[in-house]
Amino acid sequence: MIYIVGVPRAGKSTLAWMLNSVFPKVSIISSEAMSNAFSHILPDIASDVKTNQKTKDTIIQFLAEFAEWNEVLTEQKSIIDVGLVPIEMIHAVMKENDYLVCLGFGGKMTKQQIWDLITQNHEEYDYTYGMDLDRVIKLWGDFAKRDAENKFYCDEHKLTYLDTSKNRDKILLEEVKKLAKDLEE
Prior knowledge:
Layout: E1 2-6, H1 12-22, E2 27-30, H2 31-41, H3 43-49, H4 53-74, E3 78-83, H5 87-93, E4 99-104, H6 111-119, H7 133-140, H8 143-157, E5 160-163, H9 168-184
Parallel strand pairs: 1-3, 1-4, 2-3, 4-5
Helix pairs in contact: 1-9, 2-3
């Protein structure tokens, strides 16, 4: 299983789709899509997940279990695009042969600096297109703080953290090549 975590617009979905082009049978599972489904079907859980750690832990465990069963049934790897779930929660549910890639903007930028960076190349299909910084903060919280926490956690636990603030496509392509080599072994 490959977990891709990180802050908004760091390249999580792009990396997932790049890996999918190398491994066409791989399943991409979006935690955000699952979260939205839970919100739609079970609104009580959606509101509870923001305040109740046990509910949040349960959803993360469900996601990992779902992906594991998906791998068993399809005999293919799963890529989980995790979004802003705290990296330590993902790390806690990982199995021995799982991979974790964290994407961010170096862990040292302010919210405004990150926002300026991601809006430089805004396209209509980007999920943040048409939003302002206040709306993004309302949806995802202090993503600059989360980026700094992710960078620190990755450094402390020797996990892959990729700074995609410069040369994003080149960095993601290099990671695809590395993961492809690791997965073929």
